């Protein structure tokens, strides 16, 4: 085989090896769970206000610990307490065992006993509880979704279902499956 | 039955759009069932109004809606209709569309029936040209 043949063979092998290395690294990146990366910074016992692109508050969060993923700039938090302002500047409060916050703070994934409470003093004081809740903070389109079982409570009413889409501004909640509602009795006659 | 209003109202459906605000209707779709004490209503679609956690009006449509209830005098009542608009505060139910009301004392067919679920009194009439058909059972031994 001429030297050109050997050169072509060598280059082909090198290309295959390079491809394998890249494929392996990608896989490694994907399987990196929240806790498996080495954070580029860690905050302890903090309160943080995250601003959106308009420069207004997207969310405020307090937690014992926050770790930032250097690759995605997303953040992982333990037992966080979030405050989400809606269009009327009322604060919805959310807690969970853990949370993941996207780099720009426009999406929050609450995991483990996730709870969202409507603003304090709101005429329609209510609570949404589910094993998982995803909160989207885009200004004017603040909402929460879940694929799990959900329980919504407000004075006198219990609403259960599976698969949620809640619009914070319209105070409107859609449940996609297995809806069960219980209203309190009318006044005793 | 009057005592039904002292029971919670339980509603089931496949899907639902609810509001946390008072007086804003919750819209329910698919196998809608409403139970309050002895009153049971089943239909395809339901709209429920509530205030301070208490349901006060229920509008159901179906093909047909089937509503059953035990009246204060203990007699059973069954109604089928295309639409039922039930005011849970006044106990007045308005049935419209191919209405059939069945009770031990007889059967009533009409296009529209306004029924007082507390007293069992009926105000029926479909409108011009629509007839009411009523069959009263003879008193036993008469």
Bin the helical content of chain B.
under 10%
Strand numbers in spatial order across the main sheet of chain A: 2-3-6-7-5-4
CATH superfamily of the largest domain in chain A: Lipopolysaccharide (LPS) transport protein A like domain
- Poorly predicted parts of chain A: 28-34
Largest sheet of chain A: 6 strands, antiparallel, barrel
Shape descriptor of chain B: globular
Low confidence ranges of chain B: none
Which structural class matches the secondary elements of chain B? mainly beta
Percent range for β-strand residues of chain B: over 45%
Report the oligomer: heterodimer
Give the terminus-to-terminus CA distance of chain B.
Answer: 29 Å
Give the biggest beta sheet of chain B.
10 strands, antiparallel
Overall mean pLDDT of chain B: 86
And the CATH topology of the largest domain in chain A? lipopolysaccharide transport protein A fold
Q: Compute the number of helices of chain A.
A: 1
Which series of helices and strands of chain A comes N to C? HEEEEEEEEEEE
Highest CATH level, the class of the largest domain in chain A: Mainly Beta
Q: Would you report the number of β strands of chain A?
A: 11
- Could you say what the CATH architecture of the largest domain in chain A is? Sandwich
Number of domains of chain A: 2
Helix content of chain A: 10-25%
Q: Can you tag this structure with a few keywords?
A:
heterodimer; A: 189 residues; mainly beta; lipopolysaccharide transport protein A fold; 6-stranded antiparallel barrel; 1 helix; 51% strand; B: 142 residues; 10-stranded antiparallel beta sheet; 10 strands
Structural summary, described in words:
The complex is a heterodimer of chains A (189) and B (142). Chain A folds into two domains: 1-33; 41-184, Sandwich (lipopolysaccharide transport protein A fold), CATH 2.60.450. In chain A, strands 2-3-6-7-5-4 form a six-stranded antiparallel β-barrel. The N and C termini of chain A lie far apart (102 Å). Mean pLDDT of chain A is 86; it is low at 28-34. Chain A has one helix at residues 3-30; strands at 41-51, 57-68, 75-78, 81-85, 91-95, 98-101, 107-117, 127-136, 143-154, 157-167, 172-183. Chain A is mainly β. In chain B, strands 1, 2, 3, 4, 5, 6, 7, 8, 9 and 10 form a ten-stranded antiparallel beta sheet that branches. Chain B is mainly β. Helices cover 0% and strands 65% of the residues of chain B. Chain B contains no helices and ten strands. Chain B starts with 8 loop residues before the first strand and ends in a 6-residue tail after the last strand. Classes of the chains: A mainly beta (189), B mainly beta (142). The interface between A and B is medium-sized, with 31 and 31 residues. Chain A: It comes from Solilutibacter silvestris. Chain A: GO terms for molecular function: glycolipid transfer activity; lipopolysaccharide transmembrane transporter activity.
């Amino acid at each position: 085989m001429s030297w050109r043949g050997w050169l072509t063979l060598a280059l082909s092998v090198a290309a295959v090896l390079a491809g394998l290395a890249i494929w392996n690294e990608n896989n490694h990146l994907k399987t990196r769970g929240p806790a498996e990366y080495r954070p580029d910074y860690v905050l302890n016992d903090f309160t943080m206000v995250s601003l959106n692109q308009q420069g207004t508050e997207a969310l405020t969060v307090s937690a014992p610990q926050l770790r930032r993923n250097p690759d995605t700039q997303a953040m992982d938090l333990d037992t966080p307490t979030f405050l989400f302002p809606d269009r009327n500047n009322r604060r919805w409060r959310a807690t969970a065992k853990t949370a993941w916050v996207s780099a720009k703070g426009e999406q929050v994934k609450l995991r483990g006993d996730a709870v969202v409470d409507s603003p304090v003093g709101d005429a329609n004081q209510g609570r949404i509880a589910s094993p998982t809740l995803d909160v989207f903070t885009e200004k004017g389109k603040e909402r929460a979704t879940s694929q799990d079982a959900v329980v919504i409570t407000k004075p006198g009413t219990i609403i259960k279902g599976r698969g949620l889409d809640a619009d914070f501004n319209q105070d409107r909640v859609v449940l996609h499956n297995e809806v069960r509602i219980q209203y309190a009795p009318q006044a005793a006659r | 039955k009057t005592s039904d209003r002292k029971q919670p109202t339980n509603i089931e459906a496949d899907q639902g759009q609810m509001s946390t605000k008072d007086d804003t209707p919750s819209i329910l779709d698919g196998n809608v069932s409403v139970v309050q004490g002895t009153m049971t209503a089943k239909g395809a679609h339901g709209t429920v109004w509530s205030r301070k956690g208490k349901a006060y009006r229920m509008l159901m449509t179906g093909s047909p809606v089937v509503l059953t209830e035990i009246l204060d005098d203990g007699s059973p009542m069954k109604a089928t209709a295309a639409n039922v608009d039930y005011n849970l505060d006044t106990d007045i139910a308005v049935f419209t569309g191919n209405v059939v009301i069945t009770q031990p004392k007889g059967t009533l067919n009409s296009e529209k029936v306004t029924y007082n679920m507390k007293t069992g009194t009926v105000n029926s009439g479909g409108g011009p040209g629509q007839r009411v058909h009523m069959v009263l059972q003879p008193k036993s031994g008469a």
